[in-house]
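Task 17 of the worksheet. Students: predict the tertiary structure of the chain below and write it out as structure tokens. Keep your answer in the requested format; marks are given for formatting as well as content.
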Amino acid sequence: MIKVEMLSTGDEVLYGQIIDTNAAWLADYFFNQGLPMSRRNTVGDSLEDLIAVLKERSEHADILIVNGGLGPTSDDLSALAAARAAGVELVEHREWLRHMEQFFSERGRVMAPSNRKQALIPAGSEMVDNPVGTACGFAMQLNRCLMFFTPGVPSEFKEMIDRQIMPRLRERFTLPEPPVCLRLTTFGRSESELAQKLEPLALPEGAVMGYRSSMPIIELKLTGPASLRREMEAVWPQVQNVAGESAIFEGTEGLPAQLATRLKSQAVRLAVSEQFTAGLLCLQLASADAPLGNSSVLAPVSETLAEVTQRAKDLAEQSGCGLSLVVGSLHDEHLNFALHTPTCTHGLRVRFNVNRHGLRTRQEVCAMMALNMLRRWLNGWDVAAEHGWINVVEAIEV
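Model answer:
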């Protein structure tokens, strides 16, 4: 089995000042290419620590992706650390230097002297092109390990992995078929409840049922080698049956994207009015290119369920949209939702324990609750039913 590892660099990553989204993206990308990671490490802006970890992992990993530390400033140390670990000098890559000078010239800017540092790579290493930035990458062999050094800017990093590094890996290694991962995301069910019903299932030997809890959803994952695809797909309907109506989507596309597709297919626009969710619902739908009509974020105000339901009806009429969705204000641990449709207006009053979760989490729960109301209506289901641990205290239709 090919041992693939990643090394993230930088004090800001090590100390949690930024979230290492590159590591999460790469782990998922490589998994889908048949190269699941065996280890991820993080080291700060210390030359000694960088040299030590490069030497250490070169004795254990077959492939190491080093991310970050290729910028023009004094704390960007990855190229120097790589040269020291390999016992070679840094050399100036003249072709890349000319590329950088042209990059700045085309934008009407003068390249700062400090940028010359980004053309320095270890002697004997291979330059790896960066088609969207000024920091070139490079590849080098150290002991048993093929190392790739990449910039930390996510857009540059992803482009280089996909267009430069992955083709090199396919040439160098015989890659196995990507493993199969069947995914289903639920809302309103607890992880323990789902696990209790799923654990008795007879899974193919070598396949594993996994759970990912990320409030407010639980993702179910059946993972196994490509050779077990047929057996896994045969047992998957049993997983779907356990999830029932709490299954909000399959795969990785996400509920907002799937709702956007369905709304477009029906040529219907959705108007949204938010209070407690503070624009989160609109952001999620707009990011998925949903067909939105007039939408707004309003100041908190105490309203009855009947008033919120009437507001949803008025919003649809005023905006000329076929559908409208309203999220009210949180008041006395209760929150009102309303969905107006061409046939009637649905209202739900929900009770929340405000001390159980932080504000952001409660807003995400409410946004998902609103999206789930729309999903259930599109499916022809009762909007008020099957919300699991969500405590619906009142439901009306007008």
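Marker's comment: The chain is about 35% helix and 25% strand. Residues 359-378 form the longest helix (20 residues).
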